[in-house]
């Protein structure tokens, strides 16, 4: 994982998931690794400011008593003002350091999450929804920022300041302090009983927010389908149910937090009233001085803020643990192994032109490969074929035969359950995934085009490509008309998922991007699925040119795309059923004849009839508006 190292200790089911506030505080403290110096300075500044605040009631006591004796009080008032000003400055500086530290922790977490989520094993993306994973990077880390920047320090400084205030109150009047302690203890019992509920409600709320993000991402990514099928109201209702779930969990969290806040507020106000009434009676009975009562009341009011901050921090830490559980879970998802690059893993230099020699190892070989996305549901049951250097090999078969799964294994998204893949004669297990992927490029059927300029999309794999290199692949992919049409040419910004390009144009952009990487093996998944007949014919010519530079492995249902391939591999039920040239398979393989009949192909590659099961299958007459 690249980026900042994200500290997190213990398994999520160990200290991280402990329901006690102490375990939660320890877990949150671990997140501040690397920022302890800033925390120490902030704590010192906060304590200095608090000490200055604690000194102010004593000065006020002296001023009240001096005024009662007719003495000059302006020096004491000046000192009181200075103490107040210095307290404000140190408090502001400490708070800034804490906020900056909180932002630093969030940045660290987000770097770690982004680096982790982009490197997950492909199986993990099958198990987790993309929007929910994104929510962990955004919403969950934002909640943690408040915890680490405020709650942890508030717990420390609030406890110390409260201890100092209590000590001074004990020195001034132990009886009044006892009355205050009883009232505060009652509030503490209420707070402690609510903390577990607050954490549970927070976990449910964060999970519901993640579900909202996941459902929104799903609906927006398929917005044309949603609108064509008039499903807006259904999607609004479905996502609205997720929103309602988040609302319910948020309301429960707010209810518990409100009860806790009210308990603390009532305890503070109650203790203040007790001090005021009992202390006033004692002053009236000459059992204490007015200055002592004023100082005690000030300390009682000073006790409000630290105690409130401590109780609030306890609730906030438990809420933060709900977010941390989700972040920690994401940080523990398995990622692809990141082995160091080895110069020996580089693909061999390609010959400039001409067919490969007989002694050259094939660029790719599959030997009796078995694989299943789930152990009980095998997809490939023994696939074997080779792709020689600078040769055009096609994969055909019915839907579900395993063609796209073969591509996923070649790209090392998954590993075979049995059998072997070889690149340039070397087993894939001896190469890093990076080394394997540097040998290939893929033009996916989904034609991934991202928001950005046309140049950025083409040069995605080679961001430092020269203008001449980009122009070369633009011409090879027949993109000149697109470049001329778009305002700004290569600098034109294409919309999200290439919304201002046609399906065929997006496919040609993906082809140009793949060619720019100069791979040893180019994988084409349904390259003509979005092309008209003219562009399909042009692509066939392009593929012939590409085959002079690198090997081609093409998946196609439209057999017109593969009839000129050097070799055609027929897959059936996850097995290699046959292999050979187009004409040979028409003559000798029943499945291929059926596929050809469905595509109205005949020997020689022209449309109109197809050989099938020993007879000629004539093409039906064309209908208006139908190819």
* General shape: elongated
Q: Find the structural class using helix and strand composition.
A: alpha/beta
Number of helices: 18
> Number of DSSP strands?
14
**First-last Cα distance:** 50 Å
Q: Round the Cα radius of gyration to an integer and report it.
A: 36 Å
Strand arrangement, major sheet: 6-9-10-3-11-12
Mean pLDDT figure? 76
Approximate strand percentage: 5-15%
Q: Indicate the percent of residues in helices.
A: 55-70%
Strand-helix topology:
Blueprint: H1 21-30, H2 36-68, H3 74-117, H4 122-127, H5 130-172, H6 174-221, H7 223-228, H8 232-284, H9 290-331, E1 364-374, E2 377-387, E3 392-396, H10 403-410, E4 418-423, E5 426-427, H11 433-437, E6 440-443, E7 452-453, H12 454-458, H13 467-476, H14 480-485, E8 493-494, H15 503-516, E9 521-525, H16 533-546, E10 551-555, E11 567-572, E12 575-580, H17 582-588, H18 590-599, E13 609-612, E14 615-618
Parallel strand pairs: 3-10, 3-11, 6-9, 9-10
Antiparallel strand pairs: 1-2, 1-4, 4-5, 7-8, 11-12, 13-14
Helix pairs in contact: 1-9, 2-3, 2-5, 2-9, 3-5, 5-6, 5-9, 6-8, 6-9, 8-9, 13-15, 17-18
InterPro entries: AAA+_ATPase, ABC1_TM_dom, ABC1_TM_sf, ABC_transporter-like_ATP-bd, ABC_transporter-like_CS, P-loop_NTPase, Type_1_exporter
Keywords: ATP-binding, Membrane, Nucleotide-binding, Transmembrane, Transmembrane helix
Domain ABC transporter: 364-598
């Amino acid at each position: 994982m690249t980026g900042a190292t994200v500290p997190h200790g213990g398994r999520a089911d160990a200290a991280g998931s402990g329901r006690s506030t102490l375990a939660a505080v320890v877990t949150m403290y671990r997140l501040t690794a690397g920022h302890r110096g800033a925390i120490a300075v902030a704590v010192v500044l906060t304590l200095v400011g608090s000490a200055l605040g604690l000194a102010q009631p004593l000065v006020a006591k002296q001023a009240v008593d001096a005024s009662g004796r007719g003495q000059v009080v302006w020096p004491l008032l000046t000192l009181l003002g200075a103490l107040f000003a210095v307290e404000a400055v140190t408090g502001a500086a400490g708070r800034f350091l804490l906020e900056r530290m909180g932002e630093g922790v969030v940045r660290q977490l987000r770097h770690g999450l982004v680096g982790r989520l982009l490197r997950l094993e492909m199986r993990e993306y099958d198990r987790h929804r993309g929007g929910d994973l994104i929510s962990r990077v955004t919403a969950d880390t934002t909640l943690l920022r408040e915890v680490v920047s405020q709650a942890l320090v508030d717990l420390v400084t609030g406890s110390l300041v409260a201890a100092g205030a209590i000590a001074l109150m004990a020195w001034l009047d132990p009886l009044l302090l006892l009355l205050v302690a009883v009232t505060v203890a009652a509030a503490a019992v209420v707070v402690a009983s609510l903390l577990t509920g607050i954490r549970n409600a927070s976990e449910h709320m964060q999970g519901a927010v993640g579900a909202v993000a996941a459902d929104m991402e799903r609906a927006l990514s398929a917005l044309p389908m949603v609108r064509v099928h008039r499903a807006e109201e259904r999607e609004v209702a479905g996502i609205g149910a997720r929103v309602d779930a988040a609302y319910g969990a948020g309301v429960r969290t707010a209810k518990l937090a409100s009860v806790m806040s009210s308990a603390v507020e009532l305890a503070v106000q109650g203790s203040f009233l007790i001090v005021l009434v009992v202390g006033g009676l004692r002053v009236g009975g000459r059992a204490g001085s007015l200055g002592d009562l004023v100082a005690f009341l000030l300390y009682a009011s000073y006790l409000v803020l630290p105690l409130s901050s401590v109780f609030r921090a306890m609730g906030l830490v438990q809420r933060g643990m709900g977010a941390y559980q989700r972040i920690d879970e994401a940080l523990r998802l398995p990622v692809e192994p990141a082995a160091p690059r080895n110069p020996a893993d580089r693909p061999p230099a390609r010959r400039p032109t001409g067919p490969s020699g007989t002694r050259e190892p094939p660029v790719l070989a599959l030997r009796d490969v078995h694989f299943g996305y789930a152990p009980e549901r095998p997809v490939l049951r023994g696939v074997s074929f080779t792709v020689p250097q600078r040769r055009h090999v096609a994969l055909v078969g019915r839907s579900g035969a395993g063609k796209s799964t073969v591509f996923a294994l070649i790209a090392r998204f998954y590993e075979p359950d049995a059998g072997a893949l070889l690149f340039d004669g070397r087993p894939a297990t001896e190469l890093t995934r990076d080394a394997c992927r540097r040998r290939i490029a893929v033009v996916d059927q989904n034609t991934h085009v991202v928001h950005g300029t046309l140049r950025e999309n083409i040069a995605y794999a080679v961001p430092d490509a020269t203008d001449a290199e980009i122009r070369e692949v633009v011409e090879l992919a027949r993109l000149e008309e697109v470049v001329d049409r778009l305002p700004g040419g290569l600098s034109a910004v294409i919309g999200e998922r290439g919304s201002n390009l046609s399906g065929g144009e997006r496919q040609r952009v993906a082809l140009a991007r793949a060619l720019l990487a100069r791979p040893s093996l180019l994988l084409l998944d349904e390259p003509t699925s979005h092309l008209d007949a003219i562009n399909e014919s042009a692509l066939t010519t392009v593929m012939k040119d590409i085959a002079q530079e690198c090997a081609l492995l093409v998946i196609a249902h439209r057999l017109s795309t593969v009839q000129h391939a050097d070799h055609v591999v027929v897959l059936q039920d996850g097995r290699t059923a046959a292999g050979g040239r187009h004409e040979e398979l028409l003559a000798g393989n029943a499945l291929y004849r059926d596929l050809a009949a469905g595509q109205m192909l005949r020997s020689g590659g022209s449309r109109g009839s197809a050989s099938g099961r020993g007879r000629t299958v004539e093409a039906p007459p064309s209908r208006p508006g139908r190819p």
